[in-house]
Write a structure and sequence with these properties.
This protein is α/β, with parallel strands linked by helices. It has a domain of 70 residues: GMP Synthetase, Chain A, domain 3 (2-Layer Sandwich). Helices cover 25% and strands 28% of the residues. The chain contains twelve helices and 25 strands. Strand 14 and strand 15 form a beta hairpin. Helix 2 crosses helix 3 and helix 7 crosses helix 8. The N and C termini lie far apart (60 Å).
Length: 495
């Protein structure tokens, strides 16, 4: 099977992500499709599972049937807050199959963030876990539901699901979803969340736009039919979706999910399988060292300033840098010199490697030292509407300003110097600084927040308070995430 040609044809022909999954399940029902993190039982309910395509297809159909039984109109938003476990992928596919819009959110969000981001979209359902480490996301979801009046069907996986929350392990007696409810391939099917200084905004994509982002990675990394992809980044951002989920659907191989710095399995795809790994560039060597053997490619994700991490010692055939401009677009560039990333081309970028005749996956432009993007993966309209979400600005020529600052190398390419102004990026989490300050001030007038550079995370929050103990209590009561609460300086001598 010529994956490159097939992917380009899918991009032109308008196939859905669900159709790709169905095709894989039909062609390879006994092949391993999905694998849980080996240490799953340490952070959530259930032992690690490995599902064949046939088993995964049955699970997706059951879950889509359950969602269909809620009687939601086609195109309704279903929010997801799941870590990098099998249920996250099954839920995403089931939502699409049921004709609904999937909106995955970061695991660290709690009530304050969930309400701030989701309120404009009026989600009808939210799917969470009953347990994640020592936290109870399903309970936090119930708290958020008090402010999200549209949320009628809170759902959760796991044991000890709270009262009022639908346990998704239960079988449904409803009729399977009808294909007639599925929106067209060009309509919104997936929403991920970005941040401007004023707060969160939604980046909405059709299946075709998601496919364009993933096709670029598949071609640059040389992912072939039946390969294994190890994903250390979850599918709640464009980086995780383009870097792992869509290439997995295109290649029909095995997707092994890793949560955080969990150990990597040594036998995810069998001895004959070529293995690729997606991980943050800053920790790629540490991730790779957790699994013996060689990799066909290492896909190093950059979410802010270009990391100059030397990856020449990695045991892999290719190194691909995946540059994320928030949720607006990604650019995949294969390294010529494994010790440093290549600069990003200015203008139309085709895959693989700018090959003549290859599909154009994105186009870059520089204006006043900042990056703009347009192309088949880039959002074309604000969601849910320009009146509600004015933070995604789209020019008349289709270019979208990213706010990312860059430096041109003088040869038609550039490197990223910093993310958007007044946006804090703590690892994969992004906050609008103005919005966060306003929400924190509403909790306690004596709170002051700043962002400081961090070698590993890019940035981290630093919160000072006149009364640290009172500030912590107020932030917890308001439903702020542990990341925010833990940023409060308890020791006054550290100010």
């Amino acid at each position: 099977m010529n994956i490159a040609a097939s992917g380009a044809n899918h991009l032109a022909g308008g196939v859905t992500l669900d159709a790709l999954f169905r095709a894989n399940a039909t062609a390879r029902p006994g092949a391993i499709a999905l694998a849980d993190p080996p240490d799953r039982a340490g952070f959530t309910d259930g032992e690690p599972r490995r599902l064949t395509y046939g088993e995964a297809e049955e699970a997706v159909e059951r879950l889509a049937t359950r969602l269909h039984s809620f009687g939601l109109p086609a195109g309704s938003v279903v929010a997801l807050q799941l870590p990098n476990v099998i249920e996250s992928v099954l839920s995403l596919l089931a939502i699409l199959r049921a004709g609904l819009i999937a909106a995955p959110a970061p695991m660290l969000w709690r009530r304050s963030d969930l309400v701030s981001a989701f309120a404009p979209m009026e989600p009808k359902s939210l799917i969470a876990l009953s347990r994640f480490g020592d936290e109870r996301p399903a309970e936090a979801m119930c708290e958020a539901a008090a402010d999200l009046f549209s949320l009628s069907f809170p759902c959760a996986f796991g044991a000890n699901v709270p009262d009022g929350v639908i346990a998704l392990e239960q079988e449904s007696e409803a009729s399977p979803p009808s294909n007639a409810t599925r929106p067209s391939v060009g309509s919104v099917s997936l929403v991920t969340f970005d941040a401007a200084a004023e707060g969160f905004f939604a980046a909405a994509r059709s299946d075709a736009q998601s496919l364009a982002a993933g096709l670029a990675v598949l071609l640059e990394a040389g992912i072939e039919s039946g390969d294994t992809i190890i994903a250390t980044l979850p599918g709640n951002s464009l980086t995780g979706i383009a870097g792992a989920i869509v290439p997995w659907l295109l290649s029909g191989g095995t997707l092994e999910l890793i949560q955080g710095m969990s150990p990597l399995s040594g036998d995810s795809g069998g001895k004959a399988s070529r293995v690729h790994v997606l991980a943050p560039a800053a920790v790629m060597p540490e991730i790779v060292a957790r699994r013996p053997g060689a990799f066909a490619s290492c896909i190093a994700a950059h979410r802010g300033r270009t990391s100059q991490r030397d990856l020449s010692s990695l045991p892999c055939g290719r190194i691909v840098d995946l540059f994320a401009f928030g949720e607006i677009g990604t650019v995949a560039v294969r390294r010529e010199d494994p010790s440093r990333p290549e600069p990003i081309p200015i203008g139309p970028i085709s895959a693989p490697g700018g090959a003549p005749g290859g599909p154009i996956v994105i186009e870059t432009r520089i204006d006043d030292g900042r990056v703009l993007l347009r192309g088949p993966m880039v959002p074309t309209t604000p969601y849910p509407s320009e009146l509600v979400q004015p933070r995604l600005k789209i020019a008349g020529d289709g270019f979208v300003p990213t706010g990312y600052r860059c430096v041109s190398n003088g040869n038609g390419a550039f490197t990223v110097e910093a993310g958007p102004e007044r946006v804090v990026s703590v690892g994969a989490l992004r906050f609008g600084l103005d919005d966060l300050r306003a929400r924190l001030a509403a909790c306690n007038g004596g709170i002051r927040v700043a962002a400081v550079d961090d070698a590993l995370l890019g940035q981290r929050l630093r919160i000072e308070a006149d009364d640290p103990s009172a500030a912590v209590a107020a932030l917890q009561a308001a439903g702020h995430s542990r990341l925010v609460v833990d940023a409060v300086l308890r020791d006054t001598h550290s100010r």
